[in-house]
Amino acid sequence: MQTKAIILAAGRGSRMGTMTDEQPKCFVKLHGHRLLDWQLMALRAAGIRDIAIVRGYCGHLFTEEVHYFENQRWQQTNMIRSLESAAQWLAEGNCIVSYSDIFYSADTVRRLAASSELIALSYDPDWLAVWGRRFANPLLDAETFRRGADGLLLEIGQRSQSADTIEGQYMGLLRLTPGGWYDMVALLKQLSPVEVDRLDMTSLLSRGLTAGWRIQTVPVSGAWGEVDSSSDLAAYSEVSFDDIGH
Fold first, then answer.
1. Greatest CA span in the chain, whole angstroms?
2. How far apart are CA 185 and CA 211, in angstroms?
3. How far, in Å, are 53, 135, 238 from residue 65 at the CA level?
């Protein structure tokens, strides 16, 4: 069964300021290409041909020849509602799920697609180097991330005052099997609609760990980054993008 990919691109990215006044966040350019272009390049180089985009803000500007899902309530909802918009694909087969404000290599995608668990995510064990470029105090933004000796996730998504509790950072890139999506749907049904509207991905994964989910962690290979603000663009100016499509 061929792995598909879904890019969650419904939100505006208000922290980008005027850069997203008239375009989606993933249209912001880094090293001469839109973030979306870097993602499509990496996914296709990894052998993924079926790609979908969940769009919302400025959705009419997307012209790529891919499949589209719509999050009509993008202004009132968080990442999980965008994920639900693509429920059809998630129930049909394995899917790489990507935030739209990140970049990564094809090799990272291949490693993630090869996971044997129902749910797997990529992480950066050298996160402090990336966060150090982006923030004066990396701990103000970083979240806890702990793994077991077997590589399964133990903790994610909490605030921490110590780098000792942070073994890596989740990249915004994960892989779901239909079984993994089934487990997510079962958990979401236990929450109120308002709770689901406000739920972010790491909070969902944290709840899943409490419910007994097995989540495999896969270390990043090559360049990666997350663009949350205009200052992030400057922070990545010296990062080599040579391995994105390899």
1. 46
2. 13
3. 10, 36, 31
Nearest to 29 by CA among 45, 16, 42, 43: 16
Helix H or strand E encompassing 113: helix 106-113
Distance CA 7, CA 35 (A): 11
> What pLDDT, in 10s, does the model give residues 214-237?
999 999 988 888 888 887 777 777
Q: What is the pLDDT of residue 31?
A: 87
CA pair distance 198, 161, nearest whole angstrom: 25
Q: Which residue ranges form the domains of the chain, and what is each CATH number?
A: 4-235 (3.90.550.10)
pTM over cut 0.90: yes
Between CA 8 and CA 15, with CA 14 as vertex, the angle to 5 degrees is 105
Q: How far apart are CA 66 and CA 75, in angstroms?
A: 23
- Quick one: tokens of 29? 């350019």
